Amino acid sequence: MISGTTVQVEFWLGQLASDPASRDRLLAVACGRLQQLASRMFRRGHALRRWEETGDILQESLLRLNHALADVQPQTAAQFFGLASLQIRRVLIDMSRKHFGPRGVGKNHGSVAGSENDGQPDGVVPTREDDLDDWTRFHEAVQGLGEESRTVVDMLFYQGLSQEDAGVALGVTERTVKRWWRTARQELNDVLGGTWPAD
Questions:
Q1: Residue 34: which residues within 8 A CB-CB, separation 6 or more?
Q2: pTM for the full model?
Q3: Residue 124, strand partner residues
Q4: CB of 2 within 8 A of CB of 168?
Q5: Does residue 106 fall inside a structural domain?
Q6: pLDDT for res 69
Q7: Could you give the number of structural domains in the chain?
Q8: pLDDT of residue 145
Q9: Once rounded to an integer, what is the mean pLDDT over residues 83-96?
Q10: How far apart, in whole angstroms, are the C-alpha atoms of residue 131 and residue 119?
Q11: Residue 91 within any structural domain of the chain
Q12: What is the per-residue pLDDT across 160-170, written as a single tens digit (0 to 9) for each?
């Protein structure tokens, strides 16, 4: 239950300074959610699959989260989930730029989607420059949102919570989450020219 996870996360956050094992427990919580997100994205046939594995994104995100926890101490579960979301967002942006930027090795290479592990049918990986630009622009646009909108995108898109569970983690009503979500979608649609590349 997300309510139980929220209580545990906030307990471990309070123990960070005195109990080194608390960081490991927090990273384990983040690991499960980040793995779900990375797997979900890669099942959609993203072009990064030609050059990176789900584990690569997961490992880099967790390394960055571990380093971030040394400098920033979230006070609530929502702040912790937001910090975790920020790391994977930055990793996805950096990897897209690395492989598909002007000097990226993947810019002019096609590939075939599908993995022996994901059970999904093979298909052509999208490698059009505008697709890749949209992907990077989406994550950059999320970073530019106001606090409420960015927070709800972190909870629903990056962390994969239901609107009800997001409300519990954020300490607001589900109705408030729905309102923030509508606002966030509209803001992203405005920035991205009327497209919402969710999932």
A1: 57, 58, 61, 62, 84, 88
A2: 0.71
A3: 112
A4: yes
A5: no
A6: 92
A7: 1
A8: 93
A9: 85
A10: 24
A11: yes
A12: 888 998 998 89
Query: Does the residue 48 lie in any domain?
Result: yes
Average of per-residue pLDDT across 1-18? 80
How high is the pLDDT of residue 94? Answer: 84
The span from the first CA to the last CA of the chain, in angstroms, equals 23
Long-range (24+ apart) CB contacts under 8 A made by 169-173 are 169/2, 169/6, 169/77, 169/78, 169/81, 170/78, 171/76, 171/78
Q: Which residue segment(s) compose the domain that 16 sits in? A: 2-100+113-191
SS (H, E, C) the chain: CHHHHHHHHHHHHHHCCCCCHHHHHHHHHHHHHHHHHHHHHHHCCCHHHHCCCHHHHHHHHHHHHHHHHHHCCCCCHHHHHHHHHHHHHHHHHHHHHHHHCCCCCCCCCCCECCCCCCCCCCCECCCCHHHHHHHHHHHHHHHCCCHHHHHHHHHHHHCCCCHHHHHHHHCCCHHHHHHHHHHHHHHHHHHCCCCCCCC
Pairwise CA distance, residues 90 & 28, whole Å? 20
41 vs 64: CA distance, rounded Å: 20
The alpha carbon dihedral of 71, 75, 59, 153 has a sign of: negative
Cα separation, 52 vs 45, whole angstroms: 12
Report if residue 197 sits inside a domain. no
Euclidean distance between CA atoms 53 and 161, whole angstroms: 24
| 104-113 pLDDT, tens digit each | 444 444 444 4
